Amino acid sequence: MTKRILSFKETISFIQFLYSTIGLFLMRNIRETGLRKNLITLWLFLSLLCGITTTIDLFLYIVLKPRNAISIWEILTQLFIGMYFISAMLKTVVVVFHKDKIEKLLKWFDDNWPDARDESENEDIVEGYMRNNTWWMSHYVYISFASYITVNLSPVLTMAIRYLSTGNLKFLVPFNTWLQYSHPGSFEYPFVYTYLIYGSHVASASSICFDTMFCIIICHICMHFKVLQEKVITSVVPEANSSPEICEKILKECIVKQQKLIELTNVLGSLFNEVIFFNFTASSFNMCVDGFLFVMQPGLGKIRFVMMFLTLMSQIFILCWYGQELINNSLCISDAAYNCLWYESTQKFRKMILHIIHNSQKPQKIIAVKFWEVSLKSFSKLIQASWSYFALLNTVFGDWSFLAPAEGGLLT
């Protein structure tokens, strides 16, 4: 039975599919002129417009609603959802404006994918490492998208249960916006709900795809670092490579490959670091607000906030996990260079080995606006910061539930 070979396209197919639902096509042959191109451009424009207007609408709800008609719980809820939407739309705008650069980055991995599998000893690295990470990332996308559908369709289920049990019909929406507040009638309700659903879909799809694309690109860089480690270690094998010139040629290729991977890491950081910084900041704020609303929410309603917290934490965790993977794999090149049989080769070869070791002394990592290092260490700091914000929020507003009922917004 022939073993099925993993292809490069399989590692990004789930990202391409989800992005295509908002009119954004990555590495697809859809650059035809004429009606089809115009329709795709219009689709993407309308998706961005819907996402941006929904984001603005969230904050207009706070600004335009009368002060005596809005509670602190609604304000916290709007800030919570609004920060998520802002982060998501920033991710979309970055991908749209840097689409050509991102496609060029992905094209390099596509072009160099067969090279990594030419030798049988690299098959376990390419197949095993990339297949496992593709499986985890694709299932993360599916679970996240299922959570999005559940949250956005839960008002319909709640309405149906209330109507069947009491006979009363009260229109509900996934989250509050000014449009919904200013047009509460039954005629407008289907249109408002559809608008909110699609605006939420644009934000959710953008956020999920951005995070998984960042992680998958790092996976490809790490995979090439792993292949490079093996190539450096086996660059001197006296029985097979008796000629010093062959060893030097192989090592020279390794140096060129290492420099290219460093360049790709820098390109990745320049494209994504500002958005990741805002994402970390917004997620820290949202986790503390979520924890505070969890404390205020009685009964089974707490389950919703537990799910939200796990979603927010997992979003940060996967970014930091793969950021740590990049650091670890880039540092291992120096160990591979030291462990090769350099002492059995020429003086020129030894100098080249020193060059590789020197390039590996500084780990390759993504720095979010020179502030947050994308690593597990930063993940720990972010959780600590969220806990500190939660303690402050609980100290300042914890007694408000005695002054005003803890209801409204996400609280039920």
Architecture overview:
The chain is built from 12 helices and 2 strands, in the order ααααααααααββαα. Strands 1-2 form a two-stranded antiparallel sheet. The model has no long low-confidence stretch (mean pLDDT 83). With 412 residues, it is mainly α. Helix 5 (123-166) packs antiparallel against helix 7 (189-233) and helix 8 runs parallel beside helix 10 (347-360). It is elongated.
- The helix content is over 70%
The averaged pLDDT comes out at 83
Give start-end ranges of low-pLDDT stretches. Answer: none
SSE pattern? HHHHHHHHHHEEHH
Please state the CA-atom Rg, rounded to the nearest Å: 26 Å
Briefly note the structural class of the backbone. mainly alpha
What distance lies between the first and last C-alpha atoms, to the nearest angstrom? 56 Å
Task: Note the overall shape.
Answer: elongated
Number of strand elements: 2
Short description:
The chain has 412 residues and is mostly helical.
List descriptors.
single chain; 412 residues; two-stranded antiparallel ribbon; 12 helices; 2 strands; 1% strand; elongated
Mind sketching the topology for me?
Blueprint: H1 8-20, H2 35-64, H3 72-97, H4 99-116, H5 123-166, H6 178-182, H7 189-233, H8 244-296, H9 302-339, H10 347-360, E1 367-368, E2 372-373, H11 376-397, H12 400-403
Helix pairs in contact: 1-5, 1-7, 2-3, 2-7, 3-7, 3-8, 5-7, 7-8, 7-9, 8-9, 8-10, 8-11, 9-10, 9-11
